């Protein structure tokens, strides 16, 4: 165990233990340089000797460090010291979702949906960058007192059983059995849809207080994910909203081809639910049993004689797979009955003519409006400032595409707004604020300000919070920084002008010549520390000045074959021009130009070859 007071990298001073996991301890530490609290995860010494564990630890640092998202716990640093390896992470002051659910039991439906939507947004961001979490569970979700949610532990899978949940790593089986996807349980390759299933299990547990499956061993639990239908959530919480039941059902569909196809789809339906709109992807059974709307197919659980809607995204419903599954359970008649009703058998009453609503999500508003009015509908518009979609894009519609509606009725379109109201930012961390603004298509400019606030804290904004600005506008953030001065930009300036700029900012310039094939001789290439870095007034700043292209000695290739000569010159950094001369020994270099001296790297040397 790491001792309190120990210092890693001459920078991170351990204060106290925060948590103990299956392969690492997590400590609260102080970053001496930036004067802020951080969390330091230290790999157990016995695992530090195992290359496979070290590789997973390295992968966690690498994966998470590449993911800059407000709902992902940031990784700042990692290294090796004291006979083990460590990761320095953002310190999140709060509790794990696992602790909250165990203490409070089922969470309110809207709270569970909001948390899941934020986690789905984080996973969608990671999946777009090729990172699959593989261990989504309440223990890896941190919640602050203000309600902010952070997903942690990217890329890690323990190789031993946890006393409570059963952490496994056998061959390609990685994750936590309680939250396994069916494909994980069977050792199949996984993609982002596996994380979607695991997040569906987390949502199930938040809504009911318990996970869908438990058992005497991790293997028993894993097999239930493969073979069994989850117990109806309403057995534990009878008044759960029907749309939320549909969302959980779509996330927990065992067939990956029918499940939500991305975390974005799950987030979209959760957003629809939160705003009281019809779901975009999951099938929501009608509240009125007599309504003329298709009912979902049913799957029986023989042992308990329960019937549960097999809810799944209707746009990709794999009917052949569902029929085959139901035949195996002796329920073909149920499916035939569904198909007869769902295809409109049985006729209907009188009244206004009904037509199918065109699906227009993803289209520009004008195009979508034209399609709907052309089909006989009227259109209303609601602008959504929160969307990261291109301005003017339709991001929601009610009724949804494919539904039946009366001709002449209104279709409500939700459209990504061209304007954005600046959200509250003062007092928050710059990285989170910057990511949030960039997702809203705003340009962020940072201005460091001396302050006794923790470094990185947003102090003020221009324009002010609450101002409405157009997408693409620049927002200037005044950010707390250690006392000092930002290193100014001098690249491209003549040497003396660059020196004068650095001196005017309060720095001492130390000139360091550096060859450059692109920057003209005598011009500044850059500085160390780099531009924008906060440094103490009076400190030395290295100014790199171009000495022009690097001069390289020209090797002698006379007497070599043509190919050897070209290879020799190429290895030295030169191109080659071949001149063929008759009357000389064929294929042999008998002269070159220049015959020696130096040339700028990248220049060409002419060789004369006999034919």
Explained architecture:
This protein is of the alpha+beta class and 611 residues long. The protein has 6 domains: 84 residues, Phosphorylase Kinase, domain 1, CATH 3.30.200; 249 residues, Transferase(Phosphotransferase) domain 1 (Transferase(Phosphotransferase), domain 1), CATH 1.10.510; 64 residues, 2-Layer Sandwich (Trypsin Inhibitor V, Chain A); 64 residues, Trypsin Inhibitor V, Chain A; 61 residues, Trypsin Inhibitor V, Chain A (2-Layer Sandwich); 60 residues, 2-Layer Sandwich (Trypsin Inhibitor V, Chain A), CATH 3.30.10.20. The chain has 15 helices and 33 strands. The strands form 12 sheets. It has a 6-stranded antiparallel sheet with strand order 1-2-3-4-6-5. A 3-stranded antiparallel sheet has the order 7-8-9. The chain has a 3-stranded mixed sheet with strand order 15-18-16, with helices on one face.
Q: Which key phrases capture this entry?
A:
single chain; 611 residues; alpha+beta; Phosphorylase Kinase, domain 1; Transferase(Phosphotransferase), domain 1; 15 helices; 33 strands
Q: What portion of residues belong to β-strands?
A: 25-35%
Largest sheet: 6 strands, antiparallel
Overall geometry comes to: globular
Note poorly predicted spans: 155-174, 288-350
What's the end-to-end separation, in Å?
75 Å
How many helical elements?
A: 15
CATH architecture of the largest domain: Orthogonal Bundle
Radius of gyration: 32 Å
| Total count of strands | 33
The largest sheet has its strands arranged as 1-2-3-4-6-5
Q: Assign the CATH class of the largest domain.
A: Mainly Alpha
CATH overall fold name of the largest domain: Transferase(Phosphotransferase), domain 1
Overall average pLDDT: 80
Structural class designation: alpha+beta
In CATH terms, the superfamily of the largest domain is: Transferase(Phosphotransferase) domain 1
Task: Give the count of structural domains.
Answer: 6
Helix content: 25-40%
């Amino acid at each position: 165990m790491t001792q309190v007071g120990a210092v890693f990298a001459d920078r991170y001073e351990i204060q106290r233990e925060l948590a103990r996991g299956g392969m690492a301890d997590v400590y609260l530490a102080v970053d001496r340089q930036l004067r802020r609290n951080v969390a330091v995860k230290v790999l157990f010494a016995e695992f530090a000797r195992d290359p496979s564990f070290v590789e997973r630890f390295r992968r966690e640092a690498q994966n998470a460090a590449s993911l800059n998202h407000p709902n992902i716990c940031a990784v700042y640093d990692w290294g090796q010291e004291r006979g083990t390896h460590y990761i320095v992470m953002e310190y999140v002051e709060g509790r794990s979702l696992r602790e909250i659910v165990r203490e409070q039991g089922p969470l309110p439906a809207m709270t569970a949906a909001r948390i899941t939507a934020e986690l789905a947004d984080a996973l969608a961001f990671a999946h777009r960058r090729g990172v699959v979490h593989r261990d989504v569970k309440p223990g890896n979700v941190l919640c602050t007192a203000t309600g902010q949610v952070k997903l942690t532990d990217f890329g890690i899978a323990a190789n031993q059983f946890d006393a409570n949940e059963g952490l496994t790593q056998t061959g390609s089986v990685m994750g936590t059995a309680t939250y396994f996807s069916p494909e994980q349980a069977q050792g199949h390759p996984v993609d982002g849809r596996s994380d979607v299933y695991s997040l569906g299990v987390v949502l199930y547990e938040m809504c009911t207080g318990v996970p869908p499956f438990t058992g005497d061993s991790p293997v028993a639990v894993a097999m239930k994910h493969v073979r069994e239908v989850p117990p109806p959530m309403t057995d534990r919480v009878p008044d759960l909203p029907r749309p939320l039941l549909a969302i959980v059902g779509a996330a927990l569909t065992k067939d990956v081809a029918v499940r939500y196809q991305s975390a974005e789809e799950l987030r979209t339906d959760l957003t629809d639910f939160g705003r009281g709109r019809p779901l975009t992807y999951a099938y929501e059974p009608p509240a009125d049993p007599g309504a003329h709307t298709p009912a979902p197919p049913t799957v029986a659980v023989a042992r308990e004689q329960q019937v549960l809607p097999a809810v799944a995204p209707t746009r990709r419903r794999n009917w052949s797979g569902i029929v085959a599954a139901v035949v195996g359970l002796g329920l073909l008649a149920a499916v035939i009955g569904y198909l007869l009703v769902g295809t409109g058998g049985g006729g209907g009453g009188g009244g206004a003519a009904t037509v199918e609503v065109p699906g227009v999500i993803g289209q520009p508003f004008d195009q979508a409006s034209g399609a709907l009015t052309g089909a006989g509908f009227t259109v209303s518009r609601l602008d959504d400032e929160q969307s990261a979609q291109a301005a003017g894009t339709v991001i929601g519609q009610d009724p949804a595409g494919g539904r039946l509606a009366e001709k002449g009725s209104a279709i409500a379109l939700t459209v990504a707004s061209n304007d954005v109201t600046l959200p509250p930012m003062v007092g928050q961390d710059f990285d989170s604020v910057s990511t949030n603004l960039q997702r809203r298509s705003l340009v962020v400019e940072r201005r460091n300000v001396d302050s006794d606030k923790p470094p990185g804290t947003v102090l003020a904004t221009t324009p002010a919070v609450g101002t409405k600005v157009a997408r693409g506008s620049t927002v200037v953030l005044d950010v707390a920084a250690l006392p000092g001065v930002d290193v100014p930009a001098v690249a491209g300036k003549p040497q003396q002008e660059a020196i004068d700029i650095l001196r005017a900012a309060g720095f001492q310039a130390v000139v360091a010549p550096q060859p450059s094939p692109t920057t003209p001789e005598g011009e500044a290439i850059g500085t160390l520390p780099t531009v924008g870095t906060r440094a103490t007034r009076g400190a030395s700043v290295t100014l790199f000045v171009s000495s022009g292209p690097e001069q390289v000695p020209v090797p002698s290739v006379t007497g070599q074959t043509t190919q050897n000569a070209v290879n020799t010159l190429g290895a030295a950094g030169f191109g080659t021009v071949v001149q063929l001369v008759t009357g000389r020994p064929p294929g042999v270099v008998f002269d070159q130009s220049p015959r020696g001296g130096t040339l700028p790297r990248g220049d060409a040397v002419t060789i004369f070859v006999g034919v």
